[in-house]
Amino acid sequence: MTIHFHCFQRHALPRLCVLALTALPWSVAAWADDPEMQTTGIITRDAASSDAAPPAVATTPVPARPSPLGLTRWTEDWSALADPALRTAPLDGLKYIPFSRSDPFPYLSLGLTVRERIETNDAPAFGTGPAKSDTYLLDRVQIHADLHLDRHWRSFVQFEDARAVGKTMLTPVDQNQIDLRLLFLEYTGKVAGGTFKARVGRQEFAFDLQRFVSVRDGPNVRQAYDAVWADWELKPWRILGFVSQPTQYRDVRYFDDYSTPHQRFSTLRVERHVGGTNSISAYYALLQQDGVHDLDASGRENRHVFDVRSAGHWHAFDWDLEAMGQFGTMGGKRVRAWAFGSRTGYTIDTLHWKPWFGMQIDGASGDTKAGDRTVGTFNPLFPNEYYFNLGSYNTYVNIFHVKPIVLVRPAPRLAVMAAVGLQWRMTTADAIYTVPNIPVPNTRGRGHLWSGLYGQVRLDYTFTANLAGAIEAVDYAAGDTIRQAGGHDSRYLGTELRFGW
């Protein structure tokens, strides 16, 4: 990989130097596995547990410090720092700023997230589109303030500056300079014996392994929603719902992001815990969009979504199974589409590296006949790019995907994953698609079911409680259908540092 540093020196290197110098002295106390690895879905059921041994003698439990490396910073609770004895890390005085001497509420908590990722992709969309081989830096800085007015009310605001330094072709998910990312008001209280929460404002949602609804952390600009959201939980049950307008991103001037009633996404979801940490869930969602253009239809889309999922573990086995059906209309045609995803695995805890052997199988429908009255192409909604790979060569449209995975932990803070992905189309009548749902030109109605295969290697390492790094490499061997369409093999390499405070 050749990196042209003259593109990065002015904008990126000073920030990278500050990132390294400020992060290294931080304490490694309360270290847990990298939260980012948890959200990619490659970590087994032990991912959320600390590797530290429990105390030999029972003592009064010390409130846990949240991990500032988490994917959703707004879920952190720093109220434990009301005890001055627990303010042991640098700048803890800014993580908990009290406004009362006698009451731990109200208080203000400040935070910062910096992610720097150098990527090289020698053939985006297999080289069939206008984007060519490129090496660039994805630079993202987020700052937030979490104001707890009392035990029931809080307000959260986060600003984001995302830049793609040296990238030759920019898209809305690459760059968004100085804009509002999140701003919501939240209420928490007791209702009917359970915990009730409600939020209004710009916020984010992520379900499960984020196959279909995610915060979209893979690209540089994450996904948010202007929404009204409510949640009621009385274990083992949880019921939640929201009505939202997904945020639309543009980079014309500062603070110019917006949402529109021309695109709405609403959901009602029910979850239940069974057998301890195992869970089952189901939800109904409605996606409404104006001016949609598909290969076989265009116009207004009203897509009804039904999703069911089961996840958990039994002894050394773990599983995550999900299925989704989609019905409705698009441009006067009826929608009939479906998808499923499964990730199962087995962990050998008795071995030093705790190897996890997994199998991922995914499928999504394509349109079986052009020009008829039915649209069979699955809509992947708001997927997580991490779920397949960061090369953006796979997406949940007209696909059958088989991926054996091996994950090992050679050191307490290091996880190494290796996988091979094999990809077919469900039907040759529809195209091969790349992220998010872009058809590869000249593949619809041509060629074979076989699309290609790829090898993937990813390393995740947590340096300190505030600094983590990752390297991911993907090598995709294109099948004959892609080659006949003018495409070729593709390679991706990404190197990332994430700092959280």
Keywords, separated by commas or semicolons:
18-stranded antiparallel beta barrel; mainly beta; 501 residues; single chain; disordered N terminus
Report on this structure.
This protein has 501 residues and is mostly beta strands. Helix content is 5%, strand content 48%. The protein has four helices and 22 strands. It has an 18-stranded antiparallel barrel. A hairpin with an 8-residue loop joins strand 1 and strand 2. The chain is globular, with a radius of gyration of 23 Å. The N terminus is likely disordered.
Principal-axes geometry comes out as globular
Secondary-structure element string: HHHEEEEEEEEEEEEEEEEEEEEEHE
User: What structural class should be given to the helix and strand makeup?
Assistant: mainly beta
Mean pLDDT over the full residue set: 88
Model regions low in confidence, pLDDT < 50 over at least 5 residues:
1-60
Largest sheet: 18 strands, antiparallel, barrel
Q: How large a portion of the residues is in β-strands, by DSSP E?
A: over 45%
- From the alpha carbons, calculate the radius of gyration and give it in angstroms: 23 Å
How many helices? The count is 4
Bin the helical content: under 10%
By DSSP, the count of extended strands is 22
N-to-C CA distance? 31 Å
What topology does this entry show?
Elements (H helix, E strand, L loop, with lengths): L12 H11 L11 H6 L51 H4 L1 E2 L8 E15 L12 E15 L4 E13 L10 E16 L2 E10 L21 E10 L2 E10 L16 E12 L3 E16 L4 E17 L2 E14 L2 E15 L8 E9 L9 E2 L23 E13 L2 E11 L8 E2 L3 E2 L10 E15 L2 E12 L1 H5 L5 E11 L1
Parallel strand pairs: 13-15
Antiparallel strand pairs: 1-2, 2-3, 2-22, 3-4, 4-5, 5-6, 6-7, 7-8, 8-9, 9-10, 10-11, 11-12, 12-13, 13-14, 14-16, 16-17, 17-20, 18-19, 20-21, 21-22
